[in-house]
């Protein structure tokens, strides 16, 4: 089963490790028929899809669990989980898991800065290149952000300036929007901490929604 949930506001500062603990406790307290692993230390089998970075919000987080029920009531699962979820986490859909996590190719984000950041953001558009260092367990690799974010289509909404980006999120290449925020800080002095990052969608290779 795939449990879809939002992770907003203060919940964005729950790390993946702590989120695993949260979900373990919530599922146990709910009394729902969740399958446990076998052995001396049984625990709930869970797989999180494309874990989110600390401090970022999301409208499309999911965790896969196994159930012992032959005909689960998805609406009941949603209601019972939401009744005991911590603030900032809200389950909006429970359904059979369809696509494998490996089908995810892109993640889309809505990014917001204070409105006075508009000149710096527009300056990005005139750059011929935007080289950053992407670090991983295999070492550092130089990435040109302009190959994936050619321009920022900014719009002002009240006291904020907003734009959207869609970045690779596959196993072969996964780009975090914090790379862009870090580049904007280093190049234009725009504090990365002033950016609000919200993940809005997970897409497959053909740009259809992951489900």
Explain what this protein looks like in three dimensions.
- By secondary structure, this protein is an alpha+beta fold.
- The protein folds into 2 domains: 96 residues, Alpha-Beta Plaits, CATH 3.30.70; 103 residues, 2-Layer Sandwich (Alpha-Beta Plaits), CATH 3.30.70.
- Helices cover 20% and strands 33% of the residues.
- It has 4 helices and 10 strands; from the N terminus they run βαββαββαββββαβ.
- The strands form 2 sheets. Strands 1, 2, 3, 4, 5, 8, 9 and 10 form an 8-stranded mixed β-sheet that branches. A two-stranded antiparallel sheet has the order 6-7.
- The termini are close together.
- The mean pLDDT is 94.
What's the gist of this structure?
The protein contains four helices and ten strands; from the N terminus they run βαββαββαββββαβ.
Task: Give me some keywords for this one.
8-stranded mixed beta sheet, 211 residues, two-stranded antiparallel ribbon, single chain, 20% helix, elongated, 10 strands, alpha+beta, Alpha-Beta Plaits
* Mean of all residue-level pLDDT scores: 94
Q: What is the helix fraction of residues, given as a range? A: 10-25%
Largest sheet: 8 strands, mixed
- Count of the separate structural domains: 2
Give the number of helices. Answer: 4
From the spread of the alpha carbons, the general shape counts as elongated
Distance between the termini: 11 Å
């Amino acid at each position: 089963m795939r449990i879809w949930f939002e992770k907003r506001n203060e919940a964005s500062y729950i790390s993946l490790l702590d989120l695993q603990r949260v979900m373990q406790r919530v599922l146990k307290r709910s009394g729902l028929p969740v399958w446990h692993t076998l052995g001396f230390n049984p625990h709930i089998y869970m797989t999180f899809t494309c874990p989110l970075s600390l401090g970022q919000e999301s409208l499309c987080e999911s965790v896969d669990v196994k159930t012992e029920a032959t005909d689960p009531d998805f609406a009941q699962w949603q209601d019972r989980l939401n009744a005991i979820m911590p603030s900032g986490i809200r389950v909006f859909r429970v359904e059979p898991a369809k696509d494998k996590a490996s089908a995810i190719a892109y993640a889309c984000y809505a990014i917001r800065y204070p409105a006075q950041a508009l000149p710096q953001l527009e300056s990005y558009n005139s750059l011929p290149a935007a080289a950053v260092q992407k670090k991983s367990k295999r070492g550092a690799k130089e990435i040109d952000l302009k190959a994936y974010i050619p321009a920022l289509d900014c719009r002002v909404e009240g006291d904020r300036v907003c734009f959207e980006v869609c970045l690779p999120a596959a196993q072969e290449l996964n780009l975090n929007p914090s790379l862009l925020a870090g580049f904007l800080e280093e190049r234009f002095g725009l504090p990365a901490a002033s950016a609000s990052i919200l993940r809005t969608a997970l897409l497959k290779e053909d740009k259809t929604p992951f489900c």
